[in-house]
Design brief:
Layout lengths: L25 H6 L5 H23 L2
Length: 61
């Protein structure tokens, strides 16, 4: 089964070069097309953690 792309077609990078839409780093975005399924799953886990961390940061206000 192919790992679906997390892209929401709303790319906007923050100061750390992380997409505000999908949570991927620029490097992950570039690598996605050539990555193995295992690598894609690892990237999804990492991007989910980044998005959760960002959401928590703003929920603290």
């Amino acid at each position: 089964m192919a790992v679906p792309s997390p892209c929401v077609k709303d790319c906007c990078l923050d100061k750390q070069d992380v997409c505000l839409g999908c949570g991927h780093t620029v490097n992950e975005i570039i690598r996605w097309g050539d990555a193995s399924e295992e690598e894609k799953l690892e990237m999804l886990v990492a991007s989910k953690k980044r998005k959760e961390k960002r959401a928590q940061k703003y929920n603290d206000f």
